[in-house]
Design a protein that fits this description.
heterodimer; A: alpha+beta; Vanillyl-alcohol Oxidase, Chain A, domain 3; 5-stranded antiparallel beta sheet; 15 helices; about 20% strand; globular; disordered C terminus; B: alpha/beta; Rossmann fold; 3-stranded antiparallel beta sheet; binds flavin-adenine dinucleotide
Chain lengths: ~525, ~260
């Protein structure tokens, strides 16, 4: 059977992702395993056809939007292949199309289809059944993301404040290169010597890579290739935005679920109080796994939703004095530790000028669900608002920033956001990972003029963040939309180094065309 | 106003998972929670306390660990709590439970208003509230869906059942059981959590309550569970008219019809 077929009108959805941009392509495939991916790539390599790899297409940077040629969609690579146990730690090998939400459910319920697993995996599964309940910690808000997409973007979420982004939870990767050769990298086995990295394909050919010379930002980062002297080879593939290889098998690592998981929302009248509280809360060394922020506009949008939309009537009541919110999540071994943390947070709230009575503490499932609903209602409501504008101005999309900076620049960045948004008079809402100096400021344009001004403002912020040594994309990946910002962040010379690196893996520039590099850069390399 | 709210600890269904090997339910140790309906009862009591002033005490009957629900209640705004705990109470059906709780409430000096959840999700009987009112000798309204008016000496409540929509004037003292949706229970605050943790919770035994042991626990429980099943939903309701005697006669006839298929 031919794995590659012509794109037909029913395939139209595969031309888009959640960035709402539309691309173009001639052919599409839905491989089911590594071997089929090899076959497809070997065939496409003959003509140097462009290939866009797709996970769940929930990306926000148009990375999975095709740029001509072929769409390799991994949605049918959705099997859990096996399990491994070492020193009480559990590792699961999945295909890239496995959906995060389903995987999390299976892990929590310890329910996997093990019928095709080998004996070693079956034995590990038996131990898994007796071990404390486990979890996979990367938690992008969009839980329908595929594991392949998460690895390609180095996705992260609220709890990455403590547990780190996807990168730290990836133990091994197998993939197919543009020419159809296979590559397998296990963490801790292959390291660069300085900036020289040599990899051997399963076919026995060696790839010699010269790593770029830039220094990565000292903050949360998903912008461009991960590069550092003596680095582990696996880290180069993680966050490579579908430009180096098609990932086909991914081994993830699990952690035991904490004994207690509590959520604490603290409300403040002023943003400056929230920032001060966050700074103090960050001093707590253990137990705080997430620190998230919701600004006044985000809370106002929720108030409006609650009043007008019955689907949101179950949102907790927000008194007017609740100006903005900081949500912290506590993972603790026992109640003593959890109560100690509550006492510290209460003290810091007062020190920051807040009132500890203006807090919500969730310790039960139903209360946690309530806080979860509250936090997720923010992006959902914002998207609904943008959709309404879209009815009149179809080209308008949300203009969302994904910028992060090192600690010392965060207050300055907040000021820049405030003053420039006020100058431009743009409707906006901001929320996100304040603990990582990473807030998503979303501009909600009401017409085309605001849309262009919003985009110009985002470009301006990208410049400022680059000056501060920050990241132009902290978690969504660069994709196509933020490729121009990457050049601002690293400069032309370093972009050329990146292009040269890509050319070693993919000499015909087939994979993920338009991602990371504006296309002409790729051709030049 | 003196308000007492009845709370129960129940197993949390959502946290149970199946052991892949033994196929039995894995109890994680985090599986006891406050009966969800009781949170609506507590919020109703908190709202009434805020509206007319007074005190709010939470009461529960259960094993000593069940005092966790009282700490939960205090963290959400209750003033204090009391637990009825004694081996003599073990194995109680709704009659024996409501008897013990009625003594507990009397021990606390009685109440102007008792608020219960509509039912406990582990037993689904919805009997405790009405039986408790009976033991206390006060009137009650079950399944309240809205508090329309509150005052020191009365409440006006609403209940919507199938196609019946009632507005009821309820002189106090009285008992109400509340339905889900009567309000939106609020979350605890940090100071509330800290208060709940250190609160002194008195324990009352059967002896403390001066209970008749023959009416407590398994001994005092006439209920025999023969079979449990979900009755088919028929979705029909009839209103019975007439004076009390006529209504009672009509009701008895309907029961006979259902039991024996008599005309
Ligand atoms: C409402 C909403 C909230 C979001 N919140 C977050 C958040 O909190 N944190 C966050 O990090 N992201 C977030 N995202 C963005 C998005 O969910 C993540 O970027 C996610 O990792 C993308 O996964 P995906 O499977 O949808 O990938 P896709 O969008 O399909 O692809 C993304 C990139 O991965 C590449 N790719 C996919 N599979 C493979 C493979 N097997 N091999 C090689 N390359 C591959 C694609 O080529 C593309 O470059 C959010 C998105 C939405 C819509």
């Amino acid at each position: 059977m031919d794995l590659i077929r012509k794109l037909v009108s029913a395939d139209e959805e595969y031309l888009r992702d959640e960035s709402k941009k539309v691309g173009f392509a001639e052919t599409i495939s839905f491989p089911e395993n590594h071997e089929q991916v090899r076959e497809i790539m070997a065939q496409l390599y003959k003509d140097g056809t462009s290939v866009t790899v797709q996970g769940s297409r929930t990306g926000l940077a148009s990375a999975a939007v095709p740029f001509g040629g072929h769409i390799l969609n991994t949605s049918r690579m959705d099997k859990v292949l096996g399990m491994r146990e070492k020193d009480g730690h559990f590792y699961i090998t999945v295909q890239p199309g496995v959906i995060l939400q389903k995987l999390n459910k299976a892990i929590a319920a310890r329910a996997f289809d093990t019928s095709a697993w080998d004996e070693a995996s079956q034995a590990a599964f038996e131990a898994f059944g007796k071990a404390p309940v486990q979890m996979f910690t990367p938690d992008p808000t969009e839980s329908t993301a595929a594991i392949g997409g998460m690895v390609a973007c180095n996705a992260s979420g609220a709890k990455s404040y403590h547990y780190g982004a996807t990168r730290g939870h990836i133990q091994a990767l197998r993939g197919v290169l543009a020419n159809g050769e296979s590559i397998c990298i296990k963490r801790g086995e292959i390291f660069a010597k300085g900036l020289d990295l040599a990899l051997t394909t399963e076919e026995g050919n060696t790839i010699n890579v010269k790593l770029p010379t830039y220094k990565m930002p000292n903050c949360k980062n998903a912008s461009g290739y991960y590069c550092a002297p003596d680095m582990d080879a696996i880290d180069l593939m993680i966050g490579s935005d579908g430009t180096l290889a098609v990932l086909t098998e991914i081994e993830i690592s699990l952690l035991p679920v904490p004994a207690l998981s509590w959520g604490v929302s603290t409300f403040f009248e002023a943003e400056s109080q929230a920032a001060k509280y966050t700074k103090l809360a960050k001093q707590i060394a253990n137990g705080i796994v997430a620190i998230e922020y919701f600004d006044a506009c985000a809370l106002d949008i929720l108030r409006k939703q609650k009043a007008e939309n019955t689907a949101f009537a179950g949102l907790p009541f927000l008194p007017e004095s609740y100006g903005c919110a900081v949500y912290t999540e506590l993972h603790c071994d026992n109640e003593d530790q959890a109560y100690e943390l509550l006492e510290s947070l209460s003290k810091y709230c007062t020190q920051a000028g807040g009132n500890p009575e203006m807090t919500w503490v969730a310790t039960s499932d139903s209360d946690r669900d309530m806080l979860h609903f509250f936090r997720h209602a923010v992006p959902e409501s914002v998207n609904m608002q943008v959709e309404r504008t879209k009815r009149t101005y179809p080209e308008v999309t949300k203009v969302g920033g994904d910028l992060a900076v090192p600690d010392e620049y965060f207050e300055e960045l907040l000021k820049i956001y405030d003053t420039t948004l006020e100058e431009e008079g743009l409707l906006h809402a901001a929320w996100g990972h304040i603990g990582d100096n990473h807030i998503h400021v979303n501009i909600l344009p009401r017409d085309m003029d605001e849309y262009s001004r919003g985009k110009a403002l985002l470009a301006k912020w990208a410049g400022e963040v680059s000056r501060m040594g920050g990241a132009v994309s902290a978690e969504h990946g660069v994709g196509k939309l933020k490729a121009p910002f990457l050049e601002v962040m690293y400069g032309k010379e370093h972009i050329s180094e990146m292009a040269a690196l890509k050319a070693v893996f993919d000499p015909k520039c087939m994979l993920g065309r338009g991602n990371l590099f504006a296309p002409q850069e790729e051709v030049k390399a | 106003m003196k308000i007492i709210v009845c709370m129960k600890q129940v197993p949390a269904a959502a946290t149970a998972s199946i052991d892949p090997l033994t196929k039995t339910i894995v109890r994680t140790g985090r599986n006891a929670v406050t009966n969800p309906f009781d949170l609506y009862a507590l919020q109703t009591a908190l709202d009434i306390k805020e509206g007319v002033g007074g005190t709010l005490t939470a009461i529960t009957m259960g094993i000593p660990a069940a005092q966790k629900v009282l700490r939960d209640a205090i963290s959400r705004g209750a003033d204090d709590g009391a637990i009825l705990s004694d081996r003599a109470f073990a194995g109680a059906d709704t009659l024996a439970t409501s008897y013990a709780i009625s003594l507990g409430i009397e021990k606390l000096g009685g109440a102007d208003l008792v608020v219960c959840g509509k039912m406990a999700v582990d037993g689904d009987t919805a009997q405790i509230g009405p039986e408790l009112a009976q033991h206390l000798g006060i009137s009650h309204v079950s399944d309240v869906t809205e508090i329309l008016e509150m005052a020191e000496d009365h409440l006006v409540v609403r209940r919507v059942w199938d196609d019946i929509d009632q507005e009821l004037y309820l002189p106090l003292p009285a008992l109400i059981t509340v339905a889900k949706g009567v309000n939106l229970p609020k979350l605890p605050t940090i100071p509330g959590m800290l208060r709940g943790r250190v609160a002194e919770i008195p324990t009352f035994t059967a002896e403390d309550l001066g209970a008749d042991i023959a009416r407590c626990g398994l001994k005092g429980s006439p209920t025999q569970v023969v079979r449990t099943f979900t009755p088919p939903v028929r979705g029909e309701a009839q209103e019975i008219e007439g004076n009390e005697t006529q209504q009672a006669a009509k009701l008895a006839q309907i029961i006979r019809e259902v039991l024996h298929g008599e005309d």
